[in-house]
Amino acid sequence: MAMSAAKRAKQSALPKSAVIIIKNQLPEPCGEVEVTPHGGRIIFENKDKKDHRLRFHSAKGGSGSSIDLLLPALGRTTVLIKKDDEFMYTVMNLDGEEVMTGHGGGPIKN
Fold first, then answer.
1. Plot region of 102 (φ>0 → left; ψ -120 to 50 → alpha; else → beta)
2. Domain region containing 87
């Protein structure tokens, strides 16, 4: 099926990567982050001097499945985005305790 001109323009305008900075246990930006579905990457950069756990889950709800990734102290973690991916995330301590105030971050999508 042919792609509309508007959809092509939107996809070509999306960045190849985006950075979410975690500082004082809070993400910036904390809202929607969108990258191209063609090899798009979300880079989480930790400015804190302690490790964090990033918990990702579907933005559509449903099964309740999630995946956790380590965000090392003063380090980075990269998440690849494929076509039609959309996730929410939570910043947590390594023991699983939520450290972020509010409702969480995201969505991350293409």
1. left
2. 10-109
Report whether the peptide linkage leading into residue 37 is cis, meaning its omega lies within 30 degrees of zero. Answer: no
Residue 98 sits in a domain of what CATH number? 2.60.40.420
Answer whether 35's CB lies under 8 Å from 17's CB: yes
Count how many domains the chain has: 1
User: 53 in a domain, yes or no?
Assistant: yes
71-93 pLDDT, tens digit each: 999 999 999 988 888 999 989 88
pTM for the structure as a whole? 0.81
pLDDT digits (tens, 9 = 90+) for 8-40: 555 568 999 999 999 988 999 989 999 998 889
Q: Output the six-digit token pair for 11.
A: 């996809």
Q: Give a yes or no: residue 3 inside a domain.
A: no
Provide the 3-class DSSP secondary structure of residue 90: strand
